[in-house]
Structure formats: structure tokens, C-alpha cells
Amino acid sequence: MVRFEKSVRMHCRQEDMRKERLTMNEKQQSLGDVLERLFHEPNRLAIMSALCAADSGLPFSELRERCGLTDGNLNRHLKALEEAGAVRITKKFVDAKPQTKIFVSKQGLDRFSDYLAALSEVLEQARNSMPATKTAKDAPLSLARTVTA
């Protein structure tokens, strides 16, 4: 009888652990789904960050310089952002020279804000799940960037 009770308890513990793992995986997956791929690419993150800081948009050349991108690279990322409705691009002539100016759209600002909130949540969850001895803030300054599991 005692053997049977131990077996049942062990099975229940294993089942609880399995459910906990599933719940953790579901939570991680749902957080991953919230991290919108459009903004998660590092160059697009830089582009959106620069545009959010500019009240009246940015000329193409200034955005290129701020993000450290080539003309072609910036064009490619702006096309993806424009197709998704995250940015608005205007082209006009200023002193007989063509000028392209990029603005973050209302929809883009809302979506980017949601992305940043989700990213913040994911990072906080990762920070809280790290063992105390493995956090970068506890490591010596010279090792802060190289702390690994």
C-alpha cells in the first residue's frame, strides 16, 4: 500500500512539473508572438527610435547618418516599414534639390510603443529568471559583458 501511495505521489509531482513547463512555454511563446518582427530587426529598431525622437520627421541623409546605414540598406528597411504603415515618406524639392523626409505614422508609433512594452516585459522576465550569481550587475566590471551560463 505504501508503494502505491509513493507511486501516485511521484506521478502527481511529475504531472505538476509537466504542466508548469507547458505553462512556462506558453508564456514564453505568447511573449515571443508580441515581439513584432517588423521592429525586432536591429536596424529597424534604430530607425524607429531615431524617428520617434524627431518631432518633425528626419531627412533621409540625417536618418542614414544617425543609424549608420548605407543608402541601399536604409531604403530596404524604409520600404518594409512603409509597406507595414509604420512610416510615411514624403519627397519634394528644396532649393531645386530633391529631399526625402521620413515620419513615423500614428499607427507606427502605436505599434512601436506596444513592441517596446512587450520587449521590456520579456527582458524583465529574463532578468528575474536568472540566478543571482549570473546577473551582469553582480559581475566585476571587466566581466559584465562576458557573463555566461
Short account of what is shown:
With 149 residues, the protein is an alpha+beta fold. It is 63% helix and 12% strand. It folds into 2 domains: 1-34; 38-119, Arc Repressor Mutant, subunit A, CATH 1.10.10.10.
Topology:
Layout: H1 2-34, H2 37-40, H3 42-53, E1 58-59, H4 60-67, H5 71-83, E2 87-94, E3 97-104, H6 106-129
Antiparallel strand pairs: 1-3, 2-3
Helix pairs in contact: 1-6
Write down the CATH class of the largest domain.
Mainly Alpha
The CATH topology annotation of the largest domain reads as: Arc Repressor Mutant, subunit A
Element string (H = helix, E = strand):
HHHEHHEEH
The helix count comes to 6
Question: What do you see in this structure?
Answer:
This protein has 149 residues and is of the alpha+beta class. It is 63% helix and 12% strand. It has six helices and three strands, in the order αααβααββα. Strands 1-3-2 form a three-stranded antiparallel β-sheet. The two termini are 44 Å apart. Residues 142-149 have low confidence and may be disordered.
